Amino acid sequence: MQITELYQQYLNSSGISTDTRKIEKGKIFFALKGENFNGNLFAEEAIKSGASLVIVDEAIFAQQEKMVVVEDALETLQQLALHHRKALQLKVLAICGSNGKTTTKELIARVLETRHKIFSTKGNFNNHIGVPLTLLAIPARTEIAIIEIGANHLEETTLLCKIAAPDYGLITNNGKDHLEGYGNIEGVRKGNGELYDYLRENKGTAFVCMDQPDLMERSEGLNRITYGETTSADYCGTIRATFPFLKIYLPNSHAEIETLLMGSYNFDNIMAAVAVGNFFGITTSQVAQAIASYIPSNNRSQLLQKRWQYLHS
Known about the structure:
Radius of gyration: 22 Å
Number of strands: 14
Low-confidence stretches: none
Distance between the termini: 74 Å
């Protein structure tokens, strides 16, 4: 089956599933494989659970008309996701980096949704399986998709960029994460920098923190928009307060941004949202209101009040 034909099947389906425990009627089931599982074993179960089509890559399991054999089920899923991404009339912003990806993604989403129809990565669906599933969940009327990219070894970011085909990119920072895969900090910088390489080759635009010399060096020659404390940045800010919550001043617009975030480490995340928001036509006042209303998920950077109860014997 060609991707174009499979795409028509996808458009007529109720979505994609890779887990028979969560499958719903009318979904297309992809029989993915890993070190400790083989989705092909559940092809029959997927049909019984209501799958409209099952994609397998081991012919022995293709026992029904609704089962289609491909060379590699995962690669087919990724190709289908790319086909869907290209069929949509939208812009894609990819976010990668060692720390702050999720908070930055959520802040940017909160800001952009004030004016645009947006879609963003849910949870930690940011790897070679999660990214295609995220892309295939994007509704047709979406204007901007914010795709989080998570990688732990070289060439993985390149692969995910080829699937998501971002028009814009943002690296939060380079830190000592996933050293077992990258080897050292230089490996981390090279791995994250694959996003810049993709943008450079495809005439994309990068949002770059000007306060981070390694990111500025790696993005040299790119069409870029800069942000940070550096006064020459396109979008400059300074920290006014850090306790109980972070407060930022934007000297160029004489605006102040109040947040419900703790810690100066969130400054870069907030300034990234300012830069992206302004670039996509969100006024500074709207940006400030959106950021002020943002409450991080999963208890990140939150100040929680607790009522202590003392028991006396």
